[in-house]
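Page 37, continued from 36.
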């Protein structure tokens, strides 16, 4: 063995300690506060949260269900509309040109019918709104027509421009045919109503009797015979004076005719309304 001292051994034969082995023994006991014994965990906050959460969830459940239902309905409706629109677009896209033209014509015809219905409804509404004025107008028109018919058939007195014609018969030679010709010539010249003496001439008027004893509709006449006619005075005077007319025929029998044109004459003789015995109104059947 060598004579060098053995410095690697300690007294008593123990092996030398390394600094790492000595560190735990040199540290003070309170240098590591985490080394204290485990304390029981604080569970107060954790235990309260699970209890409150179910209560809030239960309060929100009805509202959430309603919202979910509404959203589901809206989504379903939107989906149905989209599907229908898509199907229509696909059908039109796949249709032939002739089919598209027919569809367009149908839509145009339907639009025209709807516009016509709207116009008819508006017209009916306006007619209902103006029913009072229309009723008054219809009543006035009925009155005017009744007056016109009354003048023509002799049941209403009339006035207007016309002539007064006096036929003198000093020799009592004027026949019924002469008076009838005078009435017809006046009507042909546009006379709207005529009276002879006090007899109103109507559609069924008849001149009868012998010279000097003439009658119209059974009523006796006395010479001179006075005709009063309403119409164009100039036209009627001309018609009486034509060659071979009334003036000439009366003059040929020793009589004379005086014609006075006037802007206002009155025909006030009336006749009873003629009642048809055989004719009835046509009901259109």
């Amino acid at each position: 063995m060598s004579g060098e001292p053995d410095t690697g051994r300690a007294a008593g034969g123990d092996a030398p300690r390394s600094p790492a082995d000595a560190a735990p023994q040199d540290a003070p006991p309170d240098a590591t506060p985490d080394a204290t014994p485990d304390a029981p965990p604080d569970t107060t906050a954790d235990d309260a949260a699970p209890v409150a959460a179910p209560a809030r969830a239960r309060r929100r459940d009805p509202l959430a269900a309603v919202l979910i239902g509404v959203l589901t309905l809206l989504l379903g409706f939107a989906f149905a509309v989209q599907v229908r629109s898509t199907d229509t677009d696909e059908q039109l896209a796949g249709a032939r040109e002739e089919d598209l033209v027919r569809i367009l014509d149908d839509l145009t015809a339907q639009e025209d019918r709807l516009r016509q219905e709207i116009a008819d409804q508006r017209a009916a509404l306006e007619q209902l709104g103006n029913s009072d004025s229309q009723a008054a107008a219809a009543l006035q028109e009925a009155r005017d027509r009744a007056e016109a018919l009354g003048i023509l058939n002799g049941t209403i007195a009339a006035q207007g421009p016309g002539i007064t014609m006096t036929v003198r018969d000093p020799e009592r030679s004027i026949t019924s045919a002469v008076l009838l010709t005078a009435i017809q010539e006046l009507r042909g010249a546009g006379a709207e109503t005529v009276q002879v003496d006090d007899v109103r001439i109507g559609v069924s008027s008849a001149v009868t009797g012998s010279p000097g004893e003439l009658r119209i509709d059974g009523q006796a006449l006395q010479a001179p015979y006075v005709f009063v006619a309403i119409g164009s005075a100039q036209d009627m005077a001309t018609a009486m004076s034509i060659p071979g007319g009334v003036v000439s025929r009366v003059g040929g029998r020793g009589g004379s005719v005086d014609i006075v044109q006037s802007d206002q004459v009155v025909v006030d003789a009336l006749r009873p309304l003629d009642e048809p015995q055989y004719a009835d109104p046509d009901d259109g059947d």
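DSSP finds seven helices and eight strands in the chain. Flag for discussion at group meeting. Residues 92 and 100 are 7 Å apart (CA to CA).
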